[in-house]
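Please predict the structure of the following assembly.
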Amino acid sequence: MIIRCPYCGPRDVIEFTYQGDATRRRPDPASSDQDAWNSYIYDRTNPGGSHREFWLHGGGCRQHLVITRDMTTHAISSVAFARSIVAGESS
Amino acid sequence: MAEPRSPLGKAFVAGDHGNHAAGIGVTLRERKNLSIIQITAWADSIPAVLTAIGSATGLVLQNKPGLGRVAGEKSVFGFAPGRYFVVSATPDLETRLRSAISAELGTMVDLTHGRTVIRIGGPRSEWVISKLFAIDFSEHAFPVAYGRATLHHDIHTNIQRIDDETFDLYVFRTFARSFWLTLGHAAEEVGYRVE
């Protein structure tokens, strides 16, 4: 699988580390809703199609990325720096 | 002051090696007595840091992924957003950069003691290092003076293209001897000269 890093360009997947589901939303830290925390930590939808994920380009620019990948075909439709998404620059 | 010693030790054997009967495919050498400084700019200070690097070294860069400059023994290149290697044979490089880059602009780490720089040149250099690194070394994908950060067997390496057939490989000093031997094995089939 080739991932097109926004800084480094196309790189083999061996340079990257999967860092989990990027669709989760952390509950309010002040919340004591056990169901919400349980869901945040353990529940995964595991979709068959498009999925947003965190990846780390540890073997290159060492940036955290948000990647949209088809879970069935591994086709990647978007790659962006995670910090730019957090900052609201893209989605 | 202690004299720096090469980590290559007895693995460094000057002369011609491998299948050199038909010519020398690549030449290997260690670049010595360099100052190697890693600079990281805060996210909103990248243009100011590039200006400061330019004033301290004379090598002016634009903010573009992987872009670098080479002038004789001096070089600079980006390998991540806001991160740059600045290299010079000038001993006071760190002092000059430190006076130009304040803590408000970014941070500096002197990697001089931690990296070994191996220069590989020659008509088969792309061929040889393509065996070790899974990136595109063709000149349209990796132009002259540009830098890259990548892996060799899960071990980090920075690479800068010096000209159409010459590359500088920045490897961890503690790993340099093993890497040097691996590079020699990779170059055997094209014949290589150590100088």
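Chain B has a mean pLDDT of 94. The interface with chain A takes residues 43, 65-66, 79-81, 83, 134-136, 141, 148-151, 154, 156 of chain B (CB under 8 Å).
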